[in-house]
Amino acid sequence: MARPGVRSPIVTHSPAPVTSAESETTAPDAAPANTRGRVIVASMVGTTIEFFDFYAYATAASLVFPALFFPNETPTTQLLNSFAIFGVAFFARPIGSILFGHFGDRIGRKRTLVASLLVMGIATFLIGVLPTASVPGFTLLAPAILVLLRFCQGVGLGGEWSGAALLATENAPAGKRALYGTFPQLGAPIGFILSNVLFVVLSVTMSDAQFASWGWRLPFLMSAVLVVVGLWVRLKLMETPAFQRVLDEQRVASVPIARVFTTAWRPLILATLAMVATYVLFYMMTAFLMVVGTTPSEDAVPGLGYSRPVFLTMLIIGVVFFGIFTLVSGPLADRVGRRRLLIVVSVAIGVYGLLLQPLVSAGTVGVMATLIIGFTLMGLTFGPMAAFLPEMFKADVRYTGSAVSYNLASVIGAAPAPYALIALWSVLGGDLWLVGGYLALAAVITLVSLVVGSETKDVDFLA
């Protein structure tokens, strides 16, 4: 009996258990969710910083690192050694994907994204203060330290992309995952433009001697400011609904990589091969064409003979199309499906490779067309990947699965590409027929994986 003066609660029935579907709907109301603006900025700013750092190295590897770190070699050997170190990061990226994927699938997306950004940012800053091989005592030590720092860059980038992609897509409204997935993908063109605009400014305001002496260090040092901005944004994030559901349902994998290999080996293979053409095209358009474009036409292996600022400006114009068509690809992929869009684009990449030499041979107009078409295709193939790859994996192993496939593809597609393309270009004395054939072969590999695979746009992304 209730005490006098105290109103007894009236209980008519026990509360009904909350179903999974209801929890999906009510979870965002139970805790403050990430706002759309915060998701867009946090996913895009991180990859912008990562790609700014990455491009700063790619540009320096083309322009100044050969002479600074391999001064006693022939020009061709200098260039090959520089790009060999450039490729070290791609072999480090799968390690980073396993490391950060492990924690991303166990402790959450937010904290893992912060850690990956720190690893990449610190390594990049240290490259900016690294002594060159001309400093006494650093003839062999400088290249060795550069390899180590490049490895650390790769480890950081190996964990960055997947986390940013999941941050965007796991917070996306229904029917807009591919659109939201384009926001972290925009980090690639934006980072490229920021990095190369800076290199253009340095090139036109400094002599070659000043740039080679200390000017090349500035992009690496300035990245520290961008890292601070990225950390500030990411520390304000909430965990994604999909991973929160994994926690609530106690589906966290003890060893995510083991669960991927035992339960998701087929999508892992298909997702890896689906990225091959994207990687080859990307590094052909950036690192390789930078070399071809700025090599004098009277050299033993003749290039296009453009000055460094002129060709960088042409590249930046092309990258604007990269950004535009990255955004265009999102609504297209949401409407027609990721697989169908990527099949069409992969065929177009193969045709583009076969037409590369005739395009480049058509003078400045042809070179500019080569850049615009190539970067347009790059946007259309790269944009949907932030939705397509994660959709192949369940939420409990999504960080690991998408990160490992994305970065294994970098070993197959990106790591050998600059080195192989330069070698093929040299074999034919400056012609690009074999280079275009290499790209066409990569497109065939990707096309086969897409044909064998299935559409993913309607999968249950919370599962």
UniProtKB/TrEMBL annotation:
It is found in: Cell membrane. It holds the Pfam family MFS_1. Keywords: Cell membrane, Membrane, Symport, Transmembrane, Transmembrane helix, Transport. The chain crosses the membrane at residues 83-101, 113-134, 140-167, 179-202, 214-235, 268-290, 310-329, 341-360, 366-389, 401-426, 432-452. It is a multi-pass membrane protein. One of its GO terms (molecular function) is symporter activity. May be a proton symporter involved in the uptake of osmolytes such as proline and glycine betaine. This is Putative proline/betaine transporter. It comes from Brachybacterium endophyticum.
